[in-house]
Amino acid sequence: MTFSENLCLVAANLWGTEYRDLMGRNRFHHNVVPRQAVMHALRELKAWSFPQIARIWGMDHTTVIHGVKKSQAMALNDEDYALKFHYLMQEGERLNDQTFQTLQTQAVQNIDRLSVRLYTQEVCALAGFGPAKLRRRIAEGKFPPPIERGNQLLFDRDEVLRALNIGSPQVQETAQW
Fold first, then answer.
1. Contact (Cβ atoms closer than 8 angstroms) between residue 154 and residue 146
2. Which of 141, 143, 137, 148 is nearest to 162 (CA)?
3. Backbone torsion region of residue 50, taken as left when φ is above 0, otherwise alpha when ψ lies between -120 and 50, otherwise beta
């Protein structure tokens, strides 16, 4: 199952609806609310564009914009919804972390092939966590800030490796001696 399907499964269980109904296109309130929560969570956790999220349900991106805004408002005004959404986000981060830990193992094995500048996806793969956690760590000052080039965020390879306490194999061998 994909990340979005797993997140929908969590939301269906939280709100007590059927997974197939949540993934469907019906507009019953008990299916729309968790669907909007998933849209909001995907936007926060994965930083996906509205059209990317819309493709999951085969809908227009403006529907997703409306759903995310509605979910944000409900998270502020409805305590029960806010608790469920918070749990959904926690589960989403856990699922995201599992995915990125697998990527981390592969990335560390190929560390010497990395260029001087790293893209966000490469940094997340090395770090073993998703873009949302990366943004949070940058904001907290626990991670080196990126360099903006157009619409891309680039990170200095050496700073990232230092922040993650990862060295190249040659550096680690030298340290052992």
1. yes
2. 143
3. alpha
Distance of alpha carbon 116 from alpha carbon 157, whole angstroms: 5
CA 89 to chain centre: 9
Global pTM reads 0.60
163 Ramachandran zone, left/alpha/beta (phi>0; psi -120 to 50): alpha
The sign of the dihedral angle between the CA atoms of 17, 78, 89, 44 is positive
**What is the full DSSP assignment across 33-93?**
HHHHHHHHHHHHHH---HHHHHHHHT--HHHHHHHHHHHHHHHHH-HHHHHHHHHHHHHHH
Q: Are 56 and 2 in contact (CB under 8 A)?
A: no
Q: Tell me the residue type at 174.
A: T
Q: 131-139 vs 120-127: helix axis angle to the nearest 10?
A: 90
Residue 134 CA to residue 149 CA, distance in Å, equals 18
| Sheet with 117-119: strands ordered across | 117-119, 152-156, 147-149
pLDDT tens readout for residues 81-131: 999 999 999 988 887 766 666 666 766 777 767 778 887 778 887 887 777
Q: How far is CA 43 from CA 105, 112, 133, 138, in A?
A: 26, 32, 13, 18
